[in-house]
């Protein structure tokens, strides 16, 4: 019950509260803010809004799978990963604020959808639970690599944030595989990719 209430509290704060606080300083703080044109500013904001939406979904995913995990150690690792993802969420939120923009208006949709999908995945057992995490993080890393290539060259502040996120997301992927995660069937991976495309397209604009 304590875990359930804690997860509910975190979910409400993720969806409806103001900027999430991070335990670590943003990697972007090591770089001065670059001069951006108006079109560049809007473009960077769109990319960071996508990444913020992805971190909202990550919170829901890890919370739901921590609740459904059979093995206590798996649940604890899921919770630890969720705690690390809070920093990512806060960094993206802070960068959006610097750019004069806000998070996606569809934040509750991203959280609810990811929580539902994570709960379903967790119901099939820890091997598939972990496999779902590994595949999710693999796709997240792909998006981050794509976004780093699309940032204006002078925006080192945003790039530093995405680079640190990429490093940690890849660690989450490796941890999930090392703990026994199973590779998901190709049709499932394809559906996950299609769903992520919908989110990235909408979150860029909304």
How does this model look, in words?
- The protein has helices at about 1-15, 40-70, 70-100, 105-125, 125-150, 155-180, 185-205.
- With about 210 residues, the protein is mostly helical.
- Helix 1 (about 1-15) runs antiparallel to helix 2 (about 40-70), helix 2 (about 40-70) packs antiparallel against helix 5 and helix 2 packs across helix 7.
- The model has no long low-confidence stretch (mean pLDDT about 85).
- The protein is built from seven helices and no strands.
In short:
The protein is mostly helical and 206 residues long. It contains seven helices and no strands. The mean pLDDT is 83.
Low-confidence stretches: none
Helix amount: over 70%
Radius of gyration, rounded? 16 Å
- Total E-strand runs: 0
Distance between the ends: 35 Å
| Cα shape | globular
Number of helices: 7
Based on helices, strands and strand pairing, what is the structural class? mainly alpha
Mean pLDDT across every amino acid position:
83
Note the beta-strand portion.
under 5%
Give helix and strand order, one letter per element, not per position: HHHHHHH
